[in-house]
Amino acid sequence: MKTITDYKEKNVLVLGLAKSGMAAAKLLNILGANVTVNDQKPFEENEAAQKLQEAGLKVVCGDHPLELLDGVEVIVKNPGIPYSNPLLAEALKRNISIITEVELSYQISEAPLIGITGSNGKTTTTTVIHKILEESNKKPLIAGNIGTVASEVAELATSENVIVMELSSFQLMGTKTFKPVISVFLNLFDAHLDYHGTREEYAHAKANIFANQTSSDYAVVNADDETVMSLAKSARATVVPFSTSKVVESGAYIKDGSMFFQQEEIMPVREIVLPGKHNLENILAAVAAAKLHGASTEAVKKVLTTFTGVKHRVQYVATVQDRKFYNDSKATNILATKAAVTAFEQPVILLAGGLDRGNEFDELKPYLKNVKAILTFGQTAEKIERVAKEAGIQTIKRVDNVEKAVPEAYQLSDAGDVILLSPACASWDQFKTFEERGDMFIDSVHRLK
């Protein structure tokens, strides 16, 4: 860990606990800051706050009093807390610097960073980069929106490591000096507009990944996404494109059934075991980033011929009586479900529904051609049923939850079918997390066996 004095004797407010807030508070304390922690959850129910108070930090729980801002020089906020929060709105008026914990991680990291962002595919791409670099003995560490909190990883990293970091728009909004040696921008679709307000603000937050890069850094970008390419024009880094539809000789691409990187043939596409065109995009991005950091072609081949996917992202679960079950609980928006459904040539029985964020699902309609039945649940059940009827799907059934959907889907299926949980919605109407929803699906499938 780098020894920095940026926070020594500074009054710093950590807003919101959870894992990243807890890590930030501990780190700032080590760095000599005068730390105050503020969390909405009442103190008597807040184990994290109690531990921090025991460690000697000032803790205020239950609400966000504006008096906390008096004398504060920096706020480190939980990424999920919107800037419309009254405390943050007032802090902005007072020109108090607001950052997220990933900014701290960059400031203390001895290791170079590879940062991955985009609306979909971040976790798969991050995981594939990590695996290829690991296979190439590059000593990678994985962090950010996936796995361990970024600053905890950065504390342990040395100059011999490389940190592969998944980054959300929420995290990137709170960066000031953050600079990856390789940035990866996968795609941009309407998402999190309830947080960002407009697509433009969302895009601007994502583009922060380029903001501090220089000509000695790389920006791996999706040449098939017009918005990403438009945003990449502002990048001072060396732009390295990837594309599934055209030859981009300075980057990663498909030609004559093989994958290439900068004119080097890597391997035939048919040997890649992860299904779906969307995953081919993720793989091209991952290969570009890994090769730019010195990964071997042999390592790329080994990973791509064995890697079957990340849990909850079009994850193969089991085969029961010649029906294949896939868990794509991470599909919390329409685009992710579109990608999952079109990844299969077999007939699909789709399990979908969840939190109602006010959107309709008409965009999904053209992609339901191989869906033979839909089981719906959650707040959006009725909206998804309407689209299914308009798409000509004959079998539509509503169930209470994912657990009930699995045996019902099995009863409706035939040998050779795919039964796919890909909800197209967030999980928060019935679950705490999409992982909890996916685990319920997995458990229900195993009970069928």
From TrEMBL:
It comes from the Bacteria. GO terms for molecular function: ATP binding; UDP-N-acetylmuramoylalanine-D-glutamate ligase activity. GO terms for cellular component: cytoplasm. GO terms for biological process: cell division; cell wall organization; peptidoglycan biosynthetic process; regulation of cell shape. Residues 116-290 form the Mur ligase central domain. It is found in: Cytoplasm. Its main location: cytoplasm. Residues 312-425 form the Mur ligase C-terminal domain. Pathway: Cell wall biogenesis; peptidoglycan biosynthesis. Keywords: ATP-binding, Cell cycle, Cell division, Cell shape, Cell wall biogenesis/degradation, Cytoplasm, Ligase, Nucleotide-binding, Peptidoglycan synthesis. Its EC number is 6.3.2.9. It catalyses: UDP-N-acetyl-alpha-D-muramoyl-L-alanine + D-glutamate + ATP = UDP-N-acetyl-alpha-D-muramoyl-L-alanyl-D-glutamate + ADP + phosphate + H(+). The keyword Ion transport does not apply. InterPro entries: Mur-like_cat_sf (IPR036565), Mur_ligase_C (IPR004101), Mur_ligase_C_dom_sf (IPR036615), Mur_ligase_cen (IPR013221), MurD (IPR005762). ATP binds at residues 118-124. SUPFAM superfamilies: MurCD N-terminal domain (SSF51984), MurD-like peptide ligases, catalytic domain (SSF53623), MurD-like peptide ligases, peptide-binding domain (SSF53244). The keyword Nucleotide-binding applies. Gene3D superfamilies: Mur ligase, C-terminal domain (3.90.190.20), Mur-like, catalytic domain (3.40.1190.10), NAD(P)-binding Rossmann-like Domain (3.40.50.720). Cell wall formation. Catalyzes the addition of glutamate to the nucleotide precursor UDP-N-acetylmuramoyl-L-alanine (UMA). Belongs to the MurCDEF family. HAMAP family: MurD. PANTHER family: UDP-N-ACETYLMURAMOYLALANINE--D-GLUTAMATE LIGASE. This is UDP-N-acetylmuramoylalanine--D-glutamate ligase. It comes from Priestia koreensis.
